[in-house]
Amino acid sequence: MRYTLEKLKKEGEDILRMAGSSRNLEVVRERLFRRITRYQFDVFDEVNRPSASSIVRVRDCTRAMRSIISPESDRMAGFSVVKALYDIAHDKNRPDLQPGFYAELIHIIKGMQGRSKEKAPADIARIRTKSGRKAAIARSRELDKIWVYAQERMSRYEDGMMASAIKRRLARKNKICRVLGASDEDWYNWRWQIKNVITKLEPLEKLVPLSAEEKENIKAATNARLPFGVLPYYLSLMDNNKRGGDRCLRAQVFPPANYVKEMAANRGRRECAFDFMLEQDTSPIDYITRRYPAIAILKPYNTCPQICVYCQRNWEIERVMSRDAIAPSEKINLALDWIAEHPAIHELLITGGDPFALNNRTIDRILARVAKIKAIEHIRIGTRTPVTVPMRITEELVDTLKKYIVPGRRDISIVTHVEHPYEVTPDMALAVRRLRKAGMLVFNQQVYTFYVSRRFESALLRKVLRKIGIEPYYTFNTKGKNETLDYIVPIARLLQELNEEARLLPGLTRTDEAVYNVPGLGKSYLRARQHRDLVSILPNGARVYEFHPWDKKIYEQRNYVGTDVPILDYLNRLKSIGENPDDYETIWYFY
Ligand code: SF4
User: Ligand 1 centre and the CA of 282: distance in Å?
Assistant: First the structure.
């Protein structure tokens, strides 16, 4: 559908007529408020009772509109939807308004009036009048149909456990070994992998086919001395640029032009430009971050064997595997002394950077100190090595870790970061099995980027993860600002995925929470409606949300107002990679 001013005038005729006959903005506001209440009341109609899905849409859209039209929302967003409607109704030229804005308004108006017709994947089920066994059999047939649909959608994506992917990767591995002069023994040695991390275009272009754009961006990134590095093992997961199955993998490590431009331009003032999570405001002592009562973060090593473009700590990582990134042991001791002085903290997340890039001796030393802190009952280690260099999970490392597991007293969990089913490999499965055999649970945190957001793409990830023993834990919005615009997905898509695709999976497969990380305040659970309000739609169609801190109910806290990416832009991007935007139509009704 094309979203134009004419289309809005047609679909929003009633509301615009009302705005046109109002003498000023405050009158429009009041009349809109009354009209919204009327729409809400209309669903009580016993005679022409709307469908259940229509009632839900009316509820959600009226709630969103009620919030948008308040004067306080205008103030927070620095823009007034009511004024835009008033101007349109009075034929005033508003060149600032774009198709994304019209699209949002058209959907919200149709939703409020119970006229939206879009269907979710599970909507193929129909209400039947049967009862008892007959009803159960009919329902079972419908459920079969829903699952066949989900399965068919998931089968569009390849996962890395498929024989075809394993075969291709073996060929790539052999090529990489040949070019780098490595043996099989070298390949399975994590130290060799880390020592041979590729940080330059040369020899990268000899190992994996690169597009002209990728080459140019990598060159620009390394010239600007932005952190860049890809491990040989991870390169072996990439294709020949023909199938596109590795799109997500490439996007994780090969920086796009916009990222290079923004990061290079702001190099001198990274702290203020990119510290999206306001880490500096939540660090009471060097190497510690604390945002919650019972858990703190220790960051002993501030870099990784491989750098993710969208990393929330991209502003503080200097170089891949930089020696300077290791915290001095006396500073780690001071940080742990501080933890010991705060017995409210009984869980410690050791992350970074990647702590498993440290050697076993250093890890052992840190854990031995942590084990002395009485209050610490849970140790969580954040590492991406099972994905980027699974050979790091050696028997020796596992033996080092398991010494500190004392049933009933202290446990250790591993939190990793698998983005896409195509990253899952037999090597990763082996690493996870080792950890689990030693008594550690392994969880996953996915960053919900554009490159994992097609219909059922992340549903497949959850399915594959469960099969190798990883439990989905969080699905995060992509953090960042201008530098990661290529990656950010509208909040509405996370909500749609959670409510439509993930909902079709068994409970133990959809254990993850969709989360929006609020700068300085921490996680806002998107499932919890009370944690946010939609406050406006900007002229380009971007939604503005007000996030309420998780502890607002306990004491007064600042709110956070954040701007999302426009849904229409997102749908157009999906179209550019071969998706049908109609498959995503219900996205407009998640707020
Ligand atoms: S593994 Fe984690 S810490 Fe390291 S670069 Fe990626 S997102 Fe950042």
Answer: 19
